[in-house]
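REQUEST ID: PR-0412
SUBMITTED BY: lab tech R.K.
PRIORITY: routine
TASK: structure prediction, single protein chain
INPUT:
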Amino acid sequence: MEAVVRGFEWGGVAILVVGSLAAFVSAARSYRLIGGRRAYEKARRDVGRAILLGLEFLIIADIVMTITVDPTLESAVALGVIVLVRTFLSFSLEIELEGSLPWRRSAAGADTAEAAPAD
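STATUS: complete
OUTPUT:
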């Protein structure tokens, strides 16, 4: 099971590195086409998505390690704290990427659809 945990950890790190590099390469390519500000916003969104996915993999690794490798009360408490911190980070990134709270997204989408002028 330790190999499985290491696999998820390496997977999370790989997602962070490859996803971030891909976001920067994509932004550099689109700089001339869509402009600097929009390329920056796109890179920021793409890096945020890579971070979110990478965090999910790292949380999986922590859960598997706590359940199978080191099933003690101390490791369970440490896992709880780690999951809380990573969940808070994921939630904050999600709000930053989407621009609204998750439970207000459908209402915000309806407001912008109503405010858009008809063709």
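NOTES: The mean pLDDT is 80.
REVIEWED BY: pending
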